Structure prediction request, 442 residues.
Amino acid sequence: MTSTAPRIRRIGLAALLAVGVAASWLGPRAWADETCQSPYMPKIEGQEDYVYVWTLGIDGMGDGSDKLVTVGTNPKRPDYGKVVSSLSVGGRHEAHHAGLTDDRRHLWAGGLDDSVIYLFDIATDPAKPRLVKTIDDFVEKTGGVVGPHGFYALPGRMLISALSNSTDWGGRTALVEYNNDGEYIRTIWMPEGAEYGYDARVKAELNRMVTSSFTGHANYMRKLPELMADAEAMKNFGDSMVVWDFHARKVLQKFHVPGAPLEIRWALRPEHHYAFTATALTSKLWGIFRKDDGSFEAVELGDIGDPSKTPLPVDISLSADDRFLFVDSFMDGMVRVYDVSKPRQPRLHYEKKIGPQVNMVSQSWDGERLYFTSSLLGNWDGTGGDDAQFLKAYTWNGESLTPTFEIDFRKEELGRPHIMRFGQIGFGKSAARLPERGEDPG
Prediction:
C-alpha cells in the first residue's frame, strides 16, 4: 500500500445528520447535490461545476487504462460540456463504483476484478483530482472479500459493500469498513440465507440499513451471452434483501426478492419510511415499506417494461421530493420515469430511449438536471451489438427530458463511463470548516 494522502478530518454524526435532514426540509431550490448520496455528507449548494466519471479502460483505446474523468457541468463556465481532466490509474481493473467521504474531500473508487481501491483528492483542485492513495491489499485485510462495489460515507468511515469472495469466487460476500485514512476496521459477513451482496443504504432517522444482492466474480467477469446460456451459472444470483439495525450492524429481517435486487433508494423526506429497488433479472419494481409495528415488508410493485424481453433494470434515482423515480434499463437503453407519489401504486409517467444501452443515472437535488452513462461491465457492454459509450446530460421539467450536452467517450478515447459523482469549485474548503463532534457510534 502506498500513500501520500494528508490525514482526513472526521466530521461528526450530529453535524452531518443536521445537514442531511435540513436538506430534506429546505426543498429542491436550495440544493443541487445528487439525491442518492449518503445522509452523512454535507450537500453542495447551487449549480454543480463538475461531474467525476469513473471509467473502464478499453484495450487499444488511448492508454487502455481505467481512469477518473472530470467533465464541466456549469453552463456559466467555458468548460461546460467538455472534458476538463483525465487521470489514469494504470491497467484495467473493472472500474465500477465510487463514493465520496463524509467531508467530500476524497473520492474512493474500486475495481471489481482485482479489488484494488483508489483514493482521489478532489478538494485541493476540484478540476484536477489527484490519486493520493492506493489500497492493494483489500482481499488480504478483509479475510477474503472480493469485488469492492459500493462506497458509502459514514462519519469518519467508508462502508464498502462487496460482491464476492476469494474461496470460490461466488456470491457469498460481506460489508467492509475502513476509516477515512484508508485503514481497515472490520469485515461483517452477510448472514446465512442472504449471503449475496450489492448495495447498502442507510435511513439515518430510523437507524435502519438495507442491503441488496447480485452475483459473484465467477459470473460478473464472464461475457453476458455466455453467462445467460449457462443454466447452472444463472442460478447463482442473489434473491435477498436484508434490514439491519444500522448502529449495531445487526440483522433484523431477511426478505426473498427474486431476480437480483440492485440499487436501493430510500425516500428522502424524513417522514417517508420506505425504499425502492429494481430486480435486474425479473424486471420488477419493489418497495420496502415500514409497518406500524416498526418492522418492514418487501412488496412487488409491478413490471418494468416487458419482462419477457429482459430489459435488465440497473440504476435508479429518486427525486428529492419523493415524487419521481427514474429507472434505467440496460438492454433496451431506456429510462422510465414513475410517479411514486403514491409509493405502493407507482404509475409510468414518462419514458425515453437514452442510447443503445444505458446504465447509471445521477440526478441533481433540485430535480432540474440528470446525467446518464452507458457502461455496465466490460464483458457485458455491447451485448446488443452497438457498444456506444457516452455521458449524456439532460434537463427535466417534470414532464420530459431535454438534451443539453453529450460526450462520446469512444471518440475522446476515454473508455467506458460508469458511475458519476458531483463536484463544485471551493466546496472542499467550506466542508473542512464543519465542526468535529465525534464519530459513528457503531
Q: What stands out?
A: The radius of gyration is 20 Å. Residues 9-283+409-432 form a domain with the Lipocalin fold (CATH 2.40.128.630). The chain has five helices and 29 strands. Confidence is low (pLDDT under 50) at residues 1-29, 431-441.
